[in-house]
Amino acid sequence: MTNQPVKRSQTLRLVFLTLVNDRVARSLINCILPYIVVRFHLSGLMLGLIMASITLTSAVSAPIAGRLSDRCGRRKTLLGCLGISTVGMSIFGFASTVPALFTGRLVDGIGGGSEATSEAVIADITPRKDQTKTFGLVAMASVIGLIVGPGLGGLFASLNVRLPVWIASIMLFLNVILIAAGFQETRRSDSPKQPFALVERSWPKLIGFA
């Protein structure tokens, strides 16, 4: 919690960069799905369940992250979510069994509350009349990730099929460093626990790009 003024433009740039990194990292692995199917002899149903498992835990973690964000602050919650995502992606990258693949995706999804927390940060520092426009940064970050991620993933996979997952893990870890080094807490200690309600009500939308 803080009572110190927060530099809005700097915080928005940092949040946007973090979201872009997150979305690019998650999109990198799309191009290696055929390799995963062949290596682990997966049926279409099993692959679908593995890839959908991240959405399941994201659906659960988003509102929980909201509560934690109100109680513990945005910075701690972001660091926790991003750290968990890094661990999940690493487990997925080094998986040698199907249960390990599931575990990696499930753990990664637990860190999915970072997007909801990012929206809470935007609500903290943006005047109400400008919030709709500023929330567009979240959608823009997702679009950039969906465009850039698969292309880069294909390039990395041409060098080594596991490289996209390793790069994704590194990008997620870089997000942890970015927030740890440059993010200033935006939730004021005297603020009511209401701003996050907007994010909590919209959590199905927030996990749409998980």
Record the SSE blueprint.
Elements: H1 8-28, H2 33-40, H3 44-72, H4 74-93, H5 98-110, H6 113-125, H7 131-157, H8 163-182, H9 196-201, H10 203-206
Helix pairs in contact: 1-6, 1-7, 1-8, 3-4, 3-5, 3-6, 4-5, 4-6, 4-8, 6-7
What is shown here, in short?
This protein has 210 residues and is an all-alpha fold. Helices cover 77% and strands 0% of the residues.
Please explain how this structure is put together:
The protein has one domain (8-206): Growth Hormone, Chain: A, CATH 1.20.1250.20. The chain has helices at residues 8-28, 33-40, 44-72, 74-93, 98-110, 113-125, 131-157, 163-182, 196-201, 203-206. With 210 residues, the protein is an all-alpha fold. Helix 1 runs antiparallel to helix 6 (113-125), helix 4 (74-93) runs antiparallel to helix 5 and helix 4 runs antiparallel to helix 8 (163-182). It has 10 helices and no strands.
The name of the CATH topology is Growth Hormone, Chain: A
Number of strands: 0
- What is the structural class? mainly alpha
- What global shape is seen? elongated
Major sheet size, sense and barrel closure: none
Low-confidence stretches: 198-210
- The average pLDDT score comes to 85
Instruction: Give the topology string: H per helix, E per strand.
Output: HHHHHHHHHH
Q: Return Rg in Å.
A: 17 Å
The total tally of domains equals 1
Number of helices: 10
Give the CATH architecture.
Up-down Bundle
List keywords for this structure.
elongated; disordered C terminus; Growth Hormone, Chain: A; single chain; 210 residues; 10 helices; mainly alpha
